[in-house]
Design goal:
CATH architecture: Roll
Helix content: under 10%
Radius of gyration: 14 Å
Number of strands: 6
Number of domains: 1
Distance between the termini: 47 Å
Largest sheet: 6 strands, antiparallel
CATH topology: SH3 type barrels
Strand content: over 45%
């Protein structure tokens, strides 16, 4: 049995980013290739970005939704 996740290097790690899907900004804490399947015996892998928002809570989004913040927010 393989692990259900693996860390992936990303050029924006520890930098301020925006989730284009929600508009929320935060710091990119990790990119993880995760097995998101809920069916035994079937694997579906997806790269997820973990972003820590201003509240200190982390949320996930697809890596394709992450863009750098070029200037500080309000």
């Amino acid at each position: 049995m393989t692990e259900g996740y693996e860390y992936v290097p990303h050029r924006l790690l520890r930098r301020r980013v925006r989730d284009v899907a929600s508009g929320v900004e935060g710091v990119l804490m990790a990119v993880i290739n995760e097995n998101v399947s809920d069916s035994p015996g079937r694997e579906y892998w997806m790269e997820l970005a973990y972003i820590r928002g201003a509240s200190g809570r982390e949320f996930t989004t697809a890596v394709a939704n992450v863009e750098p913040v070029l200037h500080p927010g309000p």
